[in-house]
Design a protein that fits this description.
Elements: E1 3-8, E2 20-27, H1 30-39, E3 45-48, E4 54-55, E5 60-67, E6 72-77, E7 81-87, H2 92-101, E8 126-127, E9 130-131, E10 136-143, E11 149-153, H3 154-157, E12 174-184, H4 195-203, H5 211-225, E13 233-234, E14 243-245, H6 246-255, E15 262-263, E16 268-270, H7 273-279, E17 286-287, E18 290-292, E19 300-302, H8 308-326, E20 335-336
The structure holds uridine-diphosphate-2(N-acetylglucosaminyl) butyric acid.
Length: about 325
Amino acid sequence: MTIGKNVSLKSFNTFGIEAKAKSFCNITSTENLKRVLKEQHSHPLFILGGGSNMLLTQDIEALVLHINLKGIEVVNETKNTVTINAMAGENWHNFVLWCLDHNYGGIENMSLIPGNIGTAPIQNIGAYGVELKDVFVSCEAIHIRTQTTKIFTKSDCKFGYRESVFKQDLKGEYIITSVNLELTKNNHSLRMDYGAIQAELETLNITNPTIQDISNAVIAIRQSKLPDPNDIGNSGSFFKNPIISAQQFKQLQENFPEVPSYKISDKEVKVPAGWLIEKAGFKGKRFNNYGVHNKQALVLVNYGNANGIDIYKLAQLIQTTVKRLFNIFIETEVNII
Ligand code: EPU
């Protein structure tokens, strides 16, 4: 196990921002992970997964542990379901494709989400009406300070909208090493209530879709509005959709009758941040080598060699403008480092 010095992180973050790790270690087994944690316990650590949900604004002085654990295995099977254990370093979308190849259903709506298996529970990834928690059984994690292994059940994880215990009470305490998901082998329950999926299937002339068809539809929708990090650096949705009170929403609707929304409860409404940002005039705005994506205002982009601080300043400008115009604060979804 080697520890590299001054390693460039450019290819390890989907924003494609240049920043250096003072020291860097590639972790390929849980034994090595435990050993490094034990030996380096006095050093500050930075845990790196797929690098798809962070904006680097500076070099990292800590020891970066790149969680590169690989492996996918069926651990339990019933007549209708299968439980799969996937290691933290597996790429999420490759895992979705593997499941589709085996005709395992449940995560096809989450096709093409960037990032790795190990980071999926941290923010309860989701798209097109499905969230990780819908198929999640448990995950295994190593406690950083004591190197003990713990199994977290679904309820232990306290999942919420882009939230979990790993972002709250247990922030920075555990490293997720693998995840168990339960998927269907037959009679898949297809979720097509998200308008865009229906429309895409109609365009494709599909009336009796399979999980593969749903995945293809999701991929087509995502590719039409979200930039591919291999072409244009980005971290997906930069902001969370804000949840406001029904009373505040009523006022907003009086001024902007066309505002889209999702009802959360009688008391709360979720408003798309992308709509607020577009209304604030930022959609497609380009400043030199960075800006706001022209097809989805929720996504900030690096057109090449952008500086993380510039993108962060743009995010702050968007936040203050949206707050001033709508009196709504939009929280970042991406971690600012
Ligand atoms: N909208 C605009 N302008 C924009 C973008 C969106 O007016 O520039 C409006 C759309 O017209 C639509 C509404 O906002 O009425 C919602 O847009 P969309 O369906 O694209 O979804 P979203 O709320 O912007 C969320 C997730 C995405 C996920 C999609 C689909 C968050 C923060 N984002 O986006 O997740 O793919 O729904 O389920 O919840 C991610 O987390 O990285 C991500 C891409």
